[in-house]
Amino acid sequence: MQGKKFNTTLPTTLHLDLFAHGQIEDPFLKDTHKSLGWVSDSNVVYATTFSLDADILKYKNHRLVFEGIDTYGKVILNG
Q1: Residues 6+ apart with CB under 8 A from 19
Q2: pLDDT band per the 50, 70, 90 thresholds, residue 1
């Protein structure tokens, strides 16, 4: 799976994305979850771009809110 890129919509979960792109079997069927331990050990990057209007940029401070980052997450902005 290393180096592969997929499109997604948010909110989502890694398991649902992998299943939607045919990388794993349905994680909610029978005992499939038992063979998916590697998923939680994987390093995965979700990336996006966004722009701000000039009227927003005139303010000194801004708040960037991430809802639903589960367990471990690292957020990198402009990096």
Answers
A1: 25, 26, 27
A2: low
